[in-house]
UniProtKB/TrEMBL annotation:
CDD domains: TRX_family. PANTHER family: GEO12009P1 (PTHR45663). Keywords: Disulfide bond, Electron transport, Redox-active center, Transport. Belongs to the thioredoxin family. This is Thioredoxin. Residues 1-105 form the Thioredoxin domain. It comes from Kibdelosporangium persicum.
Amino acid sequence: MLALTDSTFTSHLASAQRPVLVYFWATWCPPCRMVAPVLAQLETELADVLEIVKVDVDAEVATARDQRIMGAPTLNLYRGGELVHSIVGARPKPALLRELEPHLKLAAR
């Protein structure tokens, strides 16, 4: 999973050819450790329709502030550089897929 920084966040999202799910996480966050393996699976399974990247909220403070991240984990889905959906907290894989599916269908049109 690609790690974005304060200096790469905006340009990466703007140049993305498919929707980007940004995983805002922290090393001290137990729910982050729970959701990370699920995201790794989804990264492989949905590679043709979704890019998954991560941002360490402690290291990339400006991005976390600018994106108004108030808790970890937060999963923000962006299309064309714009936020289209946000998920706060860990979810099991089926629940994540249910929340993401409508947005991925929109992107595939």
